[in-house]
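Input record (one chain):
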Amino acid sequence: MDSIRYGIVGCAGIGTTHAGSVGRATGADLVACADVDADAARDFAAEYDLDAYDDVTTMIEDGNVDAVSVCTPSGTHADVVVEAANAGADILCEKPLDVYADRMTRMIDACDEAGVTLAGVFQRRFEPAARRAKSAVESGELGDLVVGDTALKWFRSQEYYDSGGWRGTRAMDGGAMLNQAIHSIDRLQWLVGDVESVQAATTRHRDIECETSVGVALSFRNGAVGTVSATTTTKGGRDRTELNGTDGSLGLAGGDLDYFETGDGEEGHYGAETGSREVDLPSIDGENCHDLVVQDFVDALRAGEAPAVPGREARKAVDLILAAEASSARGEAVRVADVRAGRVPEANADDA
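The corresponding structure, as predicted from the sequence alone:
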């Protein structure tokens, strides 16, 4: 297959990250960009030597673009993806896939009907430590998983939210879960398995529409239990994920493997002896994990195969988050499948 002609939709913020990654990818040529802000598109095009457009369909059709990265604000993803799909382009969409369940269903259906590939961006799945953790789960080194926890405790000022009119809004952005913790949430459910139901409580300590702190109890389909805790209002917090199984445990601190212990056979009434596993992790092949995401997408298109995170996989973390939002509002546990199927009321996407 010839080199893929690639375009970027959304010429600010994460769009520059995608442009760099496409530029370093094998088998892709960055040829065009589009943004509703024509000046932003022209500036972006001048920096990367591209053709600039203010319309997605025109960019794809006139620029003979094969694939695009969607890097626009979260609440616009569905509309942009549907437009790109109808124009015939394959699509790599930044996280979250969108901010409402019905919008995600609409974009996935549109890609299916158009016969194009839809992939999501969850670069933490590509981290060497995360890949080693996935191998440990799949090989049975941890035994049966019984508990999986993740916590992301960061700081975002009120000025951060005020810096963009869309930040912290329900229709366009979301709160600590959809914007910051989604990568940790995705990585946890990718490692442990699909989540059956959630029970959540949220609080807000910034002048925004969405939560800034959340605690979620998880019931996984495989029988494991776990938690998510996230905030954007703490000083001195950490980013961690822990998996605990009947034969061993491991912890991820940020993108590093913090510990990996398995039982050595010695057990007593009140404890079991463990030994540390020596792990030699490879370095990242690229400047950052976005490079790996883009290269995987390009390779999948050229080989006619599925990408690492297809659209239906990319929506799982969002559906979990929407279930947590519904649980907090209703004061009761909510099944993730009910959110995905539209059986749990949420604000209508078209009215938001």
